[in-house]
Write a structure and sequence with these properties.
Layout: E1 2-3, H1 6-13, E2 23-25, E3 31-33, E4 45-47, E5 67-69, E6 89-91, H2 100-104, E7 114-116, H3 134-138, E8 146-147, E9 150-154, E10 159-163, H4 185-212
Parallel strand pairs: 1-3, 2-4, 4-5, 5-6, 6-7, 7-8
Antiparallel strand pairs: 8-9, 9-10
Length: 213
């Protein structure tokens, strides 16, 4: 286990102070503590996937954060994420989220458009995904457009999921009328030959007149 240090953040983000860190990829580093991120107040994108994080208290001060990848950690409490006004993308598959209320509270995020608590095929699901109220609860997040890799098609009366993209798309080519057979070459060339003959006759006539003069 390791604690994410300010030195490591600045090095990975190619920055000289935390206030100028905009993006950070610290995936697969066995990080258990990331409190230092609270000082990166202008960060817009973070990838902490494949670590061992459980405490998200550092996220409460990241008012400009737009994309947060916390897949494959040890997270069970989402409450620190409820006050991120600009958060648009949140990836959480492979964690230990069990409380449906934590999912419902994500409705307080006005910009959230993509949420993932399990893979598109249902793999790496959080326990909460098995809750009978899971889909209906996610439908209450009014800004949400994509859930678990599926595009939402929902209203208060109905709720359904459509894959964002098919793994094996079928391409349909519209039928076309067969092209007509081309005309014979002689038929195409005949008008040109006539014009060439007329031109040569005109040239010959002109030369005869000039010679006679």
């Amino acid at each position: 286990m390791s604690v994410l240090s300010l030195e490591s953040v600045l090095k990975q983000a190619c920055a000289f102070e935390p206030e100028v860190v905009l993006r950070l990829d610290a995936s697969q580093q066995n990080i258990a503590e990331a409190a230092v991120m609270a000082s990166c107040v202008k960060v817009v994108q973070i990838n902490f996937s494949h670590n061992i994080l459980s405490d998200l208290a550092w996220a409460t001060s990241l008012a400009q954060l737009k994309s947060l990848n916390l897949s494959f950690n040890k997270i069970s409490d989402l409450s620190p994420l409820n006050k991120l006004p600009t958060l648009q993308e949140l990836y959480l598959e492979g964690n230990n989220i069990t409380n449906i209320t934590h999912v419902a509270n994500l409705a307080t995020l006005p910009a959230l458009r993509a949420l993932r608590l399990q893979a598109i095929d249902g793999a790496h699901a959080n326990p909460v995904c098995a809750d009978p109220a899971y889909a209906a609860t996610c439908a209450t997040i009014s800004s949400l457009k994509i859930l678990d890799g599926h595009r939402l098609q929902c209203s208060l009366a109905s709720f359904s999921l459509a894959p964002v993209c098919s793994p094996n798309p079928t391409i349909t080519i519209p039928s076309q009328e067969p092209l007509p057979a081309p005309p014979p070459v002689e038929e195409i060339l005949a008008p040109f030959r006539t014009r060439v003959a007329e031109f040569l006759n005109a040239v010959t006539t002109q030369r005869t007149k000039l010679s006679a003069a």
